[in-house]
Design a protein that fits this description.
The chain is an alpha+beta fold. It has a single domain, classed as 3-methyladenine DNA Glycosylase, Chain A. Helix content is about 10%, strand content about 25%. It is built from four helices and eight strands, in the order H-H-E-E-E-E-E-H-H-E-E-E.
């Protein structure tokens, strides 16, 4: 259950900061997904920062497109993209408008609505795996491109809302290379996670995809 003190919506100014400040500060915060079947709440345990024009690993590195338009602001909105022809991944936009930075939500602990998440993640062996990885997280929460651009900083009854939760103490935050990022962007230690949390996904270095013969 979400404690009453954890239910305050995160204000937009929380996201209107440099991405490398926002990303580790998102750990322990709570994402609520409202659906016709009921709510699902997730405590964030792993994220990755992407810094727009300063970051070869970012979707916005080469400028604005129809796909990445939401990344250019305003902060506190949801950026959803489709990858590998089969999965959706969810980000939270941060920094000033027109700056195009965002935080990928990589993993979390389902703290409410696990029974509903299980119906979407039938392959999960236990509840710790329900949102263990960015595609699994989006699947468990029923997030797709229809939610791209959703404002997560509102007190209204919207599909996605970010709550204050309980921030993770700095001595429990770890950082390292981002998962699956190639090229110059691979060197950045911009993946942040809660130490020893069982819902955090395993690190995997980038492996080039081979074309089928």
């Amino acid at each position: 259950m979400i404690a009453t003190s954890d239910r305050t919506p995160l204000p937009r100014k929380f996201f209107d900061r440099p991405v490398l400040e926002v990303a580790p500060d998102l750990l322990g915060r709570i994402l609520v997904r409202s659906t016709p079947d009921g709510p699902i709440a997730l405590r964030l345990t792993e994220v990755e920062a992407y810094d727009g024009p300063n970051d070869p690993g970012s979707h916005a590195y080469r400028g604005r497109t129809a796909r990445n338009d939401v990344m250019f602001g305003p902060p506190g909105h949801v950026y959803v993209y489709f990858t590998y022809g089969m999965w959706f991944c969810m980000n939270l936009v941060c920094g000033p408008e027109d700056r195009a930075s965002a935080v990928l939500l990589r993993a979390g602990e389902i703290i409410e609505g696990a029974e509903l998440a299980r119906t979407r993640r039938l392959s999960a062996r236990n509840d710790k795996e329900l949102a263990k990885g960015p595609a699994r997280l989006a699947t468990a929460l029923d997030v797709d491109r229809a939610l791209n651009g959703t404002d997560a900083c509102t007190t209204d009854d919207t599909p996605l809302r970010m709550l204050t939760g309980t921030p993770v103490p700095s001595d429990q935050v770890r950082s390292g290379p981002r998962t699956g990022v190639s090229g110059d962007g691979a060197v950045h230690p911009w993946r942040f996670w809660v130490a020893d949390d069982p819902t955090v996904s395993p690190y995997r270095a980038h492996v080039p995809r081979r074309r089928r013969s």
